[in-house]
C-alpha cells in the first residue's frame, strides 16, 4: 500500500514530543513490512537541507501568503521519503514549530497548518505529476486535521483517510474567520463540521471528516468518550465509536536500544546490576548529585505542564528525600513549574537535580541511570518514557491512566513491571514512592521486577500490524 503520513513533527527532522517518535517509528516499521510509506511535513527552517530535498512541484500560492513548492527528500540516515512544503513566508523563521522564541503561539498557526492540510489533499491529486499517489492519507493531531476535511469535502474518488489523536487536549482552535483563509468552504463551519464552541477546531475537522479514527492506547480511546476525558468532544467521539480504535504506540527500538546506545558511555545490559550501577554513578556525576550508590535515584523526563503532574511529584518528593533518595528531572515547559524545580534543586544540593531544556542525549542517560522513572500524568494518551524505562531497566512509577495503565503492570501482579497509582494526588503518588522505597531495599525482588520489564516487547511490530489491518479494511 502507498501511505502518506501527515504530521507536524518526525524524529530525525523535528521533534518536540512523542508525536515525532511515533510518525518516524510507525513509518519505518511499515516500510520494513514492504509498504510504500512517505511523510509530509512543513518545511521549517533547515529541514530542506537536512532532508537533502529538492523541488518536485510548483504549487503556486494556494493560501495567498507566498510562493509554495513541494520538495522531495529523505529522512536523514534512512530511506524514508519525505515531502516538505516550502513556503518561506510561513516556515522560514527562528523558533519552534508551534511557538515563537518567547513561548507564544505563532499568530499565523492557522495558516502554517492550514497549508499542511491543503498540501496533503493537493498531493493526492498531483500524484500523476510527481509519480506517487497514496491509497491512504493518515493525519496526526490537529495540525493535520484540515487535510482530511478537504479530502472529504472534495468528494469523488479519493484515498481512504485515517486520523490519529495523540493528545485531545490540543484542539487547534482559531477564530471562524480563519476558515476562508485556509480554503475551507463556509458550509464546513457547522456543528456537523469544524465548528467547536464558537470557534473553528482543526482537531474536530480530523475527528469529523476522517473515515477512521484512532488514538494511541485502548484506555485513552475509552477515556475520551467520557465527559471527564473528552475535552468537550466526547459526544462526537462517542457517536463515532464504531470507527474509533485505540492502538498502543510502539517505541523505536533502534533509537532506544540499551546495548548500542550512542548517548551512553558504554553499552548496557539492563539485567546486569553492575552495569546499571556504573551508569547511575556517571549520571550522578553529570548532574552534580552525590555519588551515593546506595541512594535510590528517581528520574523524570518530560514536558513540564499541568498534564504531566509535575506539581504532584514536587509535593510527594518529600517522602523520597527524607529517605535519602535522589531526584533527577529533565524538562522544559511552563515557567512556574521550571521555577519551583529550580528552587527544589537549590534547596536540596546533591539530592535534587533539575536540568532545564530539551536534551536528547541526557534523556537517554536519565532513563538508563535511574532506579525508578516517575510518570505522574493527570492524563496520558500513551506515554513513551515508561516504555523506554522498562527497556532500560528503570522501574516505572505511573498514574493509572491512558497508555500508562495499558503498559505498566503493578507489582501486585506476579509479572508486575512497576508501580501504578489511581488518584491524581500527591498523597497517592507518595504512597507509590513509599512502595518503591520498600522494593529498593530488596535487591532480589527489585531485579525480578526489572527483568519482567526488560522482557516485555514494546517495539513497533504489533502496533504497525494493527494499523496495516485497519488500512487494509478500508481498501
Ligand atoms: P508527550 O508527547 O506528551 O510529550 P510522551 O511520553 O509521549 O509525551 O513523549 C515524550 C517524548 O519526548 C519522549 O521521547 C521523551 O523522551 C521526550 N522528551 C520529553 N522532554 C524531553 C527533554 N526535556 N529532553 C529530551 N527528551 C524529552
Structural features:
18 strands, binds adenosine-5'-diphosphate, six-stranded parallel β-sheet, 475 residues, 19 helices, nine-stranded mixed β-sheet
How would you portray this structure in words?
The protein has a 9-stranded mixed β-sheet, sandwiched between helices. The protein has a 6-stranded parallel β-sheet with strand order 15-14-13-16-17-18, sandwiched between helices. It is globular and about 65 Å long. It has helices spanning 18-32, 47-50, 88-91, 109-125, 127-130, 141-154, 178-181, 202-209, 218-223, 234-239, 273-287, 310-322, 335-347, 360-369, 385-392, 402-407, 426-440, 443-454, 461-473, and strands at residues 2-6, 36-42, 54-58, 69-74, 81-86, 136-140, 160-165, 173-174, 195-196, 199-201, 212-215, 244-246, 297-304, 326-333, 352-356, 372-375, 395-399, 419-421. Helices cover 39% and strands 18% of the residues. It contains 19 helices and 18 strands. With 475 residues, the protein is an alpha/beta fold. β9 (195-196) and β10 (199-201) form a beta hairpin.
Through-space gap between termini: 9 Å
Unreliable stretches: none
Oligomer: single chain
User: What's the helix count?
Assistant: 19
Proportion of residues in β-strands: 15-25%
The secondary structure category is alpha/beta
**What is the strand tally?**
18
Average pLDDT score: 96
The Cα radius of gyration reads 23 Å
Q: Share of helix among residues?
A: 25-40%
Side by side, the strands of the main sheet go 3-4-5-2-1-6-7-11-12
- Envelope shape: globular
Bound molecules: adenosine-5'-diphosphate
Amino acid at each position: 500500500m502507498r501511505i502518506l503520513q501527515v504530521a507536524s513533527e518526525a524524529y530525525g527532522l523535528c521533534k518536540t514530543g512523542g508525536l515525532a517518535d511515533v510518525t518516524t517509528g510507525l513509518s519505518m516499521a511499515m516500510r520494513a513490512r514492504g509498504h510504500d510509506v512517505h511523510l509530509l511535513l512543513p518545511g521549517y527552517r533547515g529541514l530542506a537541507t537536512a532532508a537533502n530535498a529538492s523541488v518536485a512541484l510548483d504549487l503556486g500560492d494556494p493560501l495567498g501568503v507566498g510562493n509554495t513548492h513541494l520538495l522531495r527528500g529523505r529522512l536523514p540516515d534512512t530511506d524514508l521519503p519525505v515531502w516538505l512544503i516550502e513556503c518561506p513566508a510561513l516556515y522560514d523563521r527562528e523558533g519552534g514549530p508551534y511557538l515563537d522564541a518567547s513561548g507564544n503561539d505563532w499568530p499565523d498557526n492557522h495558516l502554517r497548518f492550514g497549508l499542511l492540510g491543503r498540501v496533503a489533499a493537493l498531493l493526492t491529486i498531483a500524484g500523476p505529476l510527481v509519480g506517487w499517489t497514496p491509497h491512504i492519507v493518515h493525519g496526526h493531531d490537529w495540525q493535520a486535521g484540515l487535510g482530511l476535511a478537504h479530502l472529504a469535502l472534495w468528494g469523488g474518488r479519493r484515498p481512504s483517510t485515517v486520523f490519529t489523536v495523540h493528545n485531545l487536549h490540543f484542539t487547534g482552535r482559531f477564530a471562524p474567520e480563519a476558515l476562508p483563509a485556509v480554503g475551507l468552504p463556509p458550509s464546513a463551519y457547522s456543528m456537523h463540521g469544524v465548528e467547536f464552541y464558537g470557534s473553528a477546531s482543526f482537531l474536530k475537522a480530523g475527528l469529523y471528516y476522517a473515515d477512521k479514527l484512532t488514538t494511541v492506547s485502548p484506555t485513552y480511546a475509552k477515556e475520551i468518550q467520557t465527559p471527564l476525558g473528552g475535552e468537550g468532544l466526547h459526544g462526537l467521539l462517542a457517536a463515532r465509536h464504531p470507527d474509533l480504535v485505540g492502538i498502543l504506540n510502539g517505541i523505536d527500538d533502534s533509537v532506544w536500544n540499551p546495548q548500542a546506545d550512542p548517548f551512553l558511555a558504554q553499552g548496557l545490559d539492563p539485567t546486569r546490576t553492575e552495569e546499571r550501577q556504573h551508569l547511575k554513578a556517571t549520571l550522578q556525576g553529570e548532574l552534580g548529585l552525590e555519588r551515593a550508590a546506595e541512594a535510590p535515584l528517581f528520574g523524570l523526563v518530560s514536558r513540564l505542564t499541568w498534564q504531566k503532574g509535575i506539581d504532584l511529584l514536587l509535593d510527594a518528593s518529600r517522602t523520597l528525600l527524607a529517605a535519602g533518595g535522589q531526584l533527577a528531572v529533565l524538562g522544559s515547559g511552563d515557567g512556574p513549574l521550571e521555577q519551583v524545580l529550580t528552587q527544589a534543586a537549590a534547596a536540596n544540593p546533591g539530592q535534587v537535580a533539575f536540568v532545564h531544556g530539551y536534551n536528547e542525549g541526557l534523556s537517554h542517560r536519565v532513563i538508563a541511570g535511574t532506579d525508578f522513572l516517575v510518570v505522574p500524568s493527570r492524563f496520558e494518551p500513551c506515554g513513551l518514557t515508561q516504555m523506554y524505562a522498562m527497556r532500560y531497566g528503570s522501574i516505572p512509577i505511573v498514574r493509572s491512566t491512558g497508555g500508562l495503565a495499558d503498559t505498566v503492570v503493578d507489582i501486585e501482579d506476579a509479572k508486575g513491571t512497576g508501580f501504578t497509582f489511581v488518584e491524581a494526588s500527591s498523597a497517592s503518588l507518595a504512597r507509590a514512592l513509599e512502595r518503591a522505597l520498600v522494593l529498593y531495599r530488596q535487591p532480589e525482588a527489585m531485579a525480578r521486577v526489572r527483568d519482567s520489564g526488560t522482557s516485555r516487547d514494546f517495539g513497533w511490530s504489533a502496533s504497525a500490524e494493527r494499523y496495516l489491518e485497519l488500512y487494509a479494511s478500508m481498501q
